[in-house]
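One thing: mind reviewing this one?
=====
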Amino acid sequence: EEDFQPYEDEIQALKEEIRLLTEKYEDIQQESTFYSEEDILKAIKSFQRETQEETKGEASLSELKAQLESLETDLSFLMKFTGFHFTNHSKKTLEKTRNRTVQKHRLSGKCHSLSFQLEFQLLEMQDNEKVSAVVSDLSIIMESREDSNVSKFVSSIEERGDLLTFFRSLSTYAEWYEHRRHTFLHFK
């Protein structure tokens, strides 16, 4: 019997090792069944979605670049067509509620060779689907304001807060101002 003792010990050690390995195997099986086939498919679909979104992100970035180039082209055309070139614009929000926003704007630029600066408050109100905007506290600085007609015109625009009329009139006036300037240079 003493001759077989080492074998008995070896057999016991092997049985213990088999028991531990069996437990480990069962644990692994339980973990893998914990992630059902449905869970694995969901994980794969989620990964595919993320990959598609990344690809879409790249596509939308190229679309945004194309839109930006298109807007720059439109802006360049408008600048040539109207003669306006805006050099600076800043805005500061003075008041913001759910359906009312008040902003202070400062704008400077040139129309042909005439430079101008504007400062005004813009009140935007939203009523259901309708949005209305009101200009107030309009102040205009123009280099040719020493001309009494221009001065009167600018004063009336400031009183009415009529920016659209100002831009339309300035575009025409600046164009003729350029023509007059070139004509006088020609005669000099």
Observations:
- The CA atoms of residues 85 and 94 lie 27 Å apart.
